[in-house]
Structure formats: structure tokens, C-alpha cells
């Protein structure tokens, strides 16, 4: 399944990249190695074990995604990696095309024909549509002996906390609890916020000087580019980009998060952009929690697709407010914003 020990490979990766070798991270790698070990007695492809899911949770910036990415690259089987939002979009698209009661079974059969392992990064449940369908979907996935690795910031018991009709979501939690190996990665430091000496692409507070500086930076990046008007069509919705310069796009926050946009729109946007300016990011509270959730989704997707960001706002990231509903997952957003707005000397 893998030539060398995953632990040795991870140590070598840390050494080559001059990363601290952390024993807690090594323990997670060891657990993943045991979870994926095929030297045990095999039935079909996977060993005869009770657990089909590896549920890895922990605070932002502790290295969950880094660890699983390294393990994923070493595993020599049919596999798929996807951001959870992207995975669910593909599922809903399939159901829409099939329009049949057995669409879940057919979707999972298609997965089984292609993959023995699925890695879902940034697992979170924020809408009732996904909440109501996940139980049946994962039950079928486990019946097909497909293994799943999940990374998330959320404890299993707190998934979809305070969500609509959460009582109907509890069976999914119990299904995962029964079929998964749960591991928490706890570290004191957020490794993504340890490069304060670099120039940052954040501009605050919102005033004339900030506007002048961001205008100057934008002109510098787009100096030799031609302005275009782009239209993105997502299931009949048309999203217009007024300021687009060969992969560099500029938006006001309201354009991206104050209208009927969602994960699919942001995924389509990420396909044509490499650097995005977002201006006038507001302070978040209970009154704009829907806009905050869209912003969280946007940052998750841009982070996964390695889109560079430049932002203007009234406060530093760690002083931004949040709604109570999204306070926990917003910690991950803040951590990612720090990482995504660190500029280097290289071009865009």
C-alpha cells in the first residue's frame, strides 16, 4: 500500500521543509497508518475491521490537513480528495440529473467503481439540505466498504450544533460514532500565524489613505493587464465580475457575500482567478450572520484552491467580531486569512 512507513515519510517531509517534528502529529500519522494498513486479513480490498471512517478534529492551524495530505500522497490505492463543500455539490448535481429515488445508491456505486478511499477536507454541516441527507449517503458508503478520512475543526457531538431540525441529524452522528476512529489533534500554537515579519496584503482601517494604498497596489498588479468583463453562470444564476484583469479580480464584500451566492459560485470563481481583492469586509454579528457564513465558505474554497487575497477592513483580523452561531468555525477563517494575505516577493 505504501513503500515506507508513513511515520518515516512524515518525519522526512518535516525535515526537508524545516518543520518542527511534533510527537502529537506523529501519533496521528501512526493512527492513520494503522487505519489504512492492508497487511491484516483482507476481505475484498480492505482489512476485516469495524471502522470505515477516520475522523480527525482539532483547532485551526495545528496541521490536520498537512498530515492527511502527506499520508494521502503515500497511499497507493484508488483514492479521491475533495473539499467537503465540493463533494456535496457534486452529489446534489448527480441527484438533480438522475431525479430518481435510488440516486444515492447509484452515486455511491459510481464512487465504488472509482475509489476505495475518500478524503474529505474541512468537513462541516451548515445547511439543512446536507444535514437531512448525510445519514443515508454515508450509510451506503460504508456498506460499499469505502473508507473515508475526515478532517474538521468540530467535535463529532457538536456537528450542526443549533441547526434546524437537528434531532433528525442525530442518527448521522451516531452512524459516524459507530463506524469511525475519532482522533483529536491538540496543539497550543497556530502554525499559520507565525510569519509576522512578512509584508501583509491587508489594509485597515477603512479611510481615504487605505483606499489610496489599495488602489495603488491593485494598479501595480494589473499594470500590464487588459480589463475584461466576466460572466459566471451557475445553474441559471449569472454572476458578473466588473473588475477582472487576467486572473486578478476586485470586489466589494457585498458583491460576493450580500446576495444569492454560495459554494458553487465561489468554486467557479476560483477556476478563473489567482488573486482576489475584497474590500470593505464588515464586522460580523448576529445581524449579518448569513453574510458571515458565505464569507466563511468563500475563504474555505479560496484557501483550498490556493487563491491569493488582498482585503480592506476596519479592524485587524483578530479584532473582527462574529455571530455566536459561527464563532467556532470563524476561528479557522481568521487563521486562514492570516496565511492567505501574507505576500511574498514572487509575482502573483
Radius of gyration: 21 Å
Total beta strands? 13
Span of the ends, CA to CA? 38 Å
Percent of residues in helices: 40-55%
Count of helix runs: 12
Query: H/E series, N to C?
Result: HHEEEHEHHEHEHEEHEEEHHEHEH
Which structural category fits the helices and strands? alpha/beta
Read across the widest sheet, the strand sequence of neighbours is 8-13-12-11-10-9
Name the poorly predicted regions: 343-348
How is the main sheet built? 6 strands, mixed
Global shape: globular
Let me know the average pLDDT.
Answer: 86
Strand content: 15-25%
List keywords for this structure.
single chain; 348 residues; alpha/beta; 6-stranded mixed sheet; 5-stranded parallel sheet; 42% helix; disordered C terminus
Short structural description:
The protein has helices spanning 6-16, 23-36, 64-74, 84-98, 103-114, 128-143, 170-179, 208-221, 253-257, 263-270, 289-304, 327-340, and strands at 42-43, 46-47, 53-58, 79-83, 117-121, 147-152, 180-185, 202-203, 228-234, 237-245, 248-252, 275-281, 308-313. The protein is an alpha/beta fold and 348 residues long. It is globular, with a radius of gyration of 21 Å.
